[in-house]
Amino acid sequence: MSAQPTGPIGAPERQRDAERTRAEILDIATAEFADRGYAGARVDEIAARTRTTKRMIYYYFGSKEGLYVAVLERAYQGIRALEQQLDVDHLDPARAMRALAELTFDHHESHPAFIRLVSIENIHHAEHLRTSPILPGLAAPAVDVLGRILERGRRAGLFREDVDALDVHMVISSFCIFRTANRHTFQAIFDRDLLDPGRRDHYRRMLGDLVLEYLTAHVGRA
Questions:
Q1: 64-79 tens-digit pLDDT
Q2: H/E run at residue 178
């Protein structure tokens, strides 16, 4: 019988196994924390729904809070990665800004767990997210992409001068998060489903129009 791979030969496969296990834990933990909140989520339940143990979860993440922070980090890294991959430098500033707004719209609609996690962490005053060692890097991509588009728009005389990247990020995020986070209460009060597929294109276009109307307001006027 041949010996099992050891040393450098077996290391890559063990590393892949560890990465797959870690990813599986994060997938299940994302759903658990999004559904039950930080206080209500149970590590025992997460372990039971994976192919690992509670002990291994603590080995990978240190604690329940460590797991929760890792879930938050991965959630934010997902949208930041998409923003970085968006090729907007070849587009005119207005089209580039609309493309970025539409990307956020699409992401938030297709990742309702992300919206719930953000809402839950705000209830906790971001006390867990503030402990993340990669927190500074979670903001930079969004600000960098928006900043480049804004600068090109200003140089072209299209965009107003008194707006920074975080202003625009807030406007885009507000629309996209409200649409998902407040879907049920809005429907209960006004009898309109904000995620109705029949209205999707309308809302997607509305977001781009709102951002561009704001950025171009008063430009060229005394």
A1: 999 999 999 999 999 9
A2: helix 165-181
